[in-house]
């Protein structure tokens, strides 16, 4: 293993170890909010733009994942339809509300918004919309990043009901390249998916107390076809991506 590779592993593991303590309370609150929504047959929406949209897909129709999660996917603000223009869209005001209106979010639902910088128009408008609807808004963001670049702008962390600070530095990348001023090794995706999966695992464990939680099975596992078909039938009416 090279020195740079080792540095990245060490930095990422160190960040996750630190989050076990710093996020213990907000993760517990997030888990409680999601459990309450699940027990009321509400839904959990997950939204992000750019690379953050991968957190929405991470929990959608996922083996070992809960079936009441719904990704909010905005193609123009992701990467596959044009990476450069997606950066323009996520900073343009007024584009996100019409997208959210077609998802049928309801009071009592949960909206998880992933935005590392936490200041772009898209996540801010999404958070405002969630609060207006009466959803619990959970943010996964870097407080250090948003503080460094806000320059008077509103921050996602100031709007959300629950804030999960990933503790990452401004710019995301963690590793200095020797002899340069460049940094590599972004970590917001790895950290974000770990935090989300940990929360949902905790939720599933809590829901087990009520009976069998709605968990998808890997398609190659015994009984997966029947189990997953039943879950899709139940949750498809409110999930346009099933």
Automatic annotation (TrEMBL):
GO biological process: carbohydrate derivative metabolic process
Pfam families according to UniProt: SIS_2 (PF13580)
Positions of the SIS domain: 34-209
UniProt keyword Isomerase present: yes
Keyword hit for Isomerase: yes
GO molecular function: carbohydrate derivative binding; isomerase activity
Domain of life, per lineage: Bacteria
Alphabetized PANTHER family for the sequence: PHOSPHOHEPTOSE ISOMERASE, SEDOHEPTULOSE 7-PHOSPHATE ISOMERASE / DNAA INITIATOR-ASSOCIATING FACTOR FOR REPLICATION INITIATION
Protein name: Uncharacterized protein, contains SIS (Sugar ISomerase) phosphosugar binding domain
């Amino acid at each position: 293993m090279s020195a740079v590779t080792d540095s990245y592993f060490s930095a990422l593991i160190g960040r996750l170890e630190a989050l076990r303590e710093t996020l213990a309370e907000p993760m517990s609150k997030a888990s409680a909010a999601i459990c309450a929504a699940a027990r009321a047959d509400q839904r959990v929406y997950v939204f992000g733009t750019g690379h953050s949209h991968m957190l929405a897909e991470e929990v959608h129709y996922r083996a070992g994942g809960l079936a009441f999660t719904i990704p909010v996917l905005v193609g123009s603000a992701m990467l596959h339809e044009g990476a450069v223009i997606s950066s323009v869209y996520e900073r343009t005001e007024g584009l996100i509300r019409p997208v959210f209106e077609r998802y049928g979010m309801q009071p009592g639902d949960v909206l998880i918004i992933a935005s590392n910088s936490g200041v772009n128009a898209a996540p801010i408008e999404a958070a405002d919309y969630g609060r207006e609807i009466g959803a619990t808004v959970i943010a996964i963001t870097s407080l250090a990043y948003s503080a460094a670049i806000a320059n008077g702008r509103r921050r996602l962390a100031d709007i959300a009901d629950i804030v999960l600070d990933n503790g990452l530095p401004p710019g995301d990348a963690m590793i200095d390249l020797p002899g340069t001023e460049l940094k590599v090794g972004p970590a917001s995706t790895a950290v974000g998916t770990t935090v989300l999966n940990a929360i949902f695992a905790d939720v599933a464990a809590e829901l087990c107390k009520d009976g069998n939680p709605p968990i998808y099975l890997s398609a190659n596992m015994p009984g997966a076809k029947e189990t997953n078909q039943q879950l899709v039938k139940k949750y498809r009416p409110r999930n346009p991506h099933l």
